[in-house]
Amino acid sequence: MTVGVLALQGDVPEHLRTVGGLVPPSSVIAVRRPADLAVVAALFLPGGESTTIARLLHDAGLWEPLRRRLADGLPVLGTCAGLILLSAELAPSPGGANPPTFGVLDIRVRRNDYGNQRESFEGPVTVEGLDGGPFPGVFIRAPRILSVGPKAVPIAWRGEEVVGARSGPVWGLTFHPELTDDLRVHRRFLSAAGVA
Fold it and tell me: What is the number of domains present in the chain?
């Protein structure tokens, strides 16, 4: 099965490297066109700049095809900006106008809620179903999950704070697992998606 990484902006090489360490590299593709999206069995939406990624999705003709694939149950893991684009509701943000979202992850989110780049940090995260102790969470201008709706469940926590949620096959994390050498989150997602 083919695994895709949306390759328009953001942490694309890092996701490709991580996924390529878990499945045969020949089955991992960079998704830049609707034809790429059509063949993937699971997709990663990388961290980056959410408003830029949303604009590039429209420019590349990918917004509607991705919306349809999401409606059909495509397993997707969004990290940071990817989580923002998947979320059901965005609260007003100090970081400017909010991008459009796909509305498939039943959470309310505020962009850049931990502060600017200087307030970025690392800290231990507990992820549901992950053996081996805490995961090294990397939070860079991270969004904050303000609430989790009835169609979603929390899957990751930093202390008592929810930093990851899932609605069916759609997962979203406020942190960047792709920026660590720890493959456990990607492995867990691909296993749940039935592709690894």
Answer: 1
